[in-house]
Design goal:
Strand content: 15-25%
CATH topology of the largest domain: Nitrilase/N-carbamoyl-D-aminoacid amidohydrolase
Structural class: alpha/beta
Distance between the termini: 23 Å
Largest sheet: 12 strands, mixed
Oligomer: single chain
Helix content: 40-55%
CATH architecture of the largest domain: 4-Layer Sandwich
Number of helices: 17
Length: about 500
């Protein structure tokens, strides 16, 4: 037995196991953007697996909870910036709310630890625990409307494991990374006896490397579309101030003045800081500029309309295509607190952060068609929506190009914008499509069908990013089949682990 194994064996029954689980969780976000020290994920997951070995279900649940708590406490630290810098919340209260959110998200780790110990799945820990963690990531993407942040696979977008993304989505990359981390611990501990683990690592990493360059979709290089992505860099604290409405529009119009004639001019989320009906004259003028030069114009703009019974008004966070473009899209996945208030009758106004401007939006319908841009169908995603793998998988099938507009000003200079951008790159890899990302202050970029950054605008300055994108035809396996294959793989691994534990009993 190695010294490390002896140490872990001594630690497991002590309170130190809880502190070590918390530390492993705190380390985990270092594997994600902006640092992307992805080997740390192997260490963190490997330590978690070792801590869960031979534990009672209750104790295992506590260890898993603390791991999740550490993950979200560090990985979600950008929430403090949003609440304190831009949400009118005191620093102590912002830290308290971050702690609450981290604890809430960590609750989903409790059944992972409990099931793992209850059914003695540690006999094949390197297969079963990663499967449980991936199921946990899937649950986080839809439970209570979902908060699909901090998935392990995102940190591996620039590694051979990313080759699995077009087949199984980010969940497949997470599974491969988790298996790698725990298998490495087994190899270090068991040495030459770890034949199966070594074989599996070879399949995952060599297989991923061979899959990575495959073009699952057909990129039409003859149909290049020239684009201009306009980044206004409007201060977040001034975004919805009445005195900034006309100034904001002028900034964007001035930046766009030399861009008409390009195939597409893209403005970011809520670039028009007023409702569409209030901005009719401005939008008509801009559309006229676009039409004169044969350009499509796409912008984020809030939208208000009567409900069907005409008894109240519905507010939408929307994106509109005009000029040589057509379509209107209402955001389907809203940000809790930022765009709607859960349990609004109790929380609205309780603290300034629960009374932010433009936080009463309505959920858009699920059956909206793509926008048309120069006859090309383009699937739009507004800010937070790009974080949902299944939403992008579904909507991308009807489009040849994807676009996401955002206002990451809420994140400030935290790790949030980098985490968000990493997700965009993974969506491009999953779908085999170019993605245009237009933001208020960064990260504005063009990403190709392999998830690589073609070009990127400087952050926190007014800028125009010019480039070309190409439409795609065909589908990746992930687009065709979605979640089912990876869930079946996880179920198979868990069934194998359960069988092995019963044989060992």
């Amino acid at each position: 037995m190695s010294r490390f194994s002896q140490l872990m064996q001594a630690v497991r029954p002590t309170p130190a196991a809880f502190w070590l689980a918390l530390l492993a969780g705190l380390l985990m976000p270092l594997a994600l953007a902006p640092l992307t020290w992805w080997p740390i994920a192997f260490l963190a997951i490997g330590v978690l697996a070792d801590l869960l070995k031979n534990q009672s279900p209750i104790r295992a649940a506590k260890i898993a909870f603390l791991f999740g708590f550490g993950l979200w406490l560090h990985g979600g630290s950008w929430l403090v910036v949003s609440m304190y810098n831009f949400g009118g919340t005191s620093l102590p209260l912002a830290l308290a709310l971050l702690t609450f959110v981290a604890a809430l998200m960590a609750l989903l780790f409790i059944p992972i630890g409990w099931l793992y110990a209850r059914f003695k799945l540690d006999h094949l820990a390197w297969l079963t625990l990663p499967a449980l963690l991936v199921i946990g990531e899937w649950l986080r993407s839809w439970v209570l409307t979902g908060f699909p942040w901090l998935m392990t696979g995102y940190g591996f977008i620039d590694t051979p494991l990313a080759g699995w993304a077009p087949l199984f989505g980010v969940y497949g990359v997470s599974l491969a990374a988790g298996i790698t981390g725990i298998a490495l611990f087994h190899i270090i501990r068991d040495g030459k006896k770890a034949y199966l683990q070594l074989l599996t690592l070879g399949i995952l990493w060599i297989g991923g490397g061979l899959l990575s360059p495959i073009a699952w979709t057909q990129i039409d290089r003859q149909q290049a579309m020239s684009v201009s992505l306009v980044q206004g860099n409007i201060p977040q604290e001034s975004k919805w101030a009445l005195e900034w409405r006309d100034k904001t529009v002028k900034i964007y119009r001035d930046l766009s003045a030399q861009e008409w004639g390009r195939d597409l001019v893209l403005w970011p989320e809520a670039a028009i800081p007023m409702f569409a009906h209030e901005a009719q004259d401005v939008l008509a003028e801009i559309e006229n500029d676009a039409l004169k030069q044969g350009s499509a114009f796409v912008t984020g703009v809030p939208f208000a309309t009567w409900n069907k019974a005409r008894t109240g008004i519905l507010f939408y966070n929307s994106i509109a295509a005009m000029g040589d473009g057509l379509g209107l899209y209402h955001k389907q996945q809203l940000v809790p607190i930022g765009e709607y208030i859960p349990m609004e009758e109790w929380l609205r106004g309780a603290i300034p952060f629960f009374n932010l401007p433009m936080s009463s939006f309505t959920w858009g319908p699920s059956n909206q068609p793509p926008l048309l841009v120069k006859t090309q169908p383009m699937a739009p995603f507004i800010c937070y929506e790009i974080a949902y793998p299944s939403l992008v998988q579904r909507l991308s099938k009807s489009a040849s190009i994807l676009t996401t507009i955002s206002n990451d000003g809420w994140f400030g200079r935290s790790i949030g914008p980098d985490q968000h951008f990493e997700m965009v790159r993974m969506r491009a890899k999953e779908t085999g499509r170019y993605i245009l990302r237009g933001t208020n202050n960064g990260i504005t970029a063009i990403i190709n069908d392999q998830g690589k950054v073609v070009s990127q605008a400087p952050r926190f300055v007014p800028a125009v990013l010019r480039g070309e994108v190409y439409p795609a035809q065909g589908f990746t396996p992930w687009q065709r089949m979605g979640l089912q294959p990876i869930l079946w793989v996880c179920a198979l691994l868990l069934a194998l682990g359960l069988w092995r534990s019963r044989r060992a009993a």
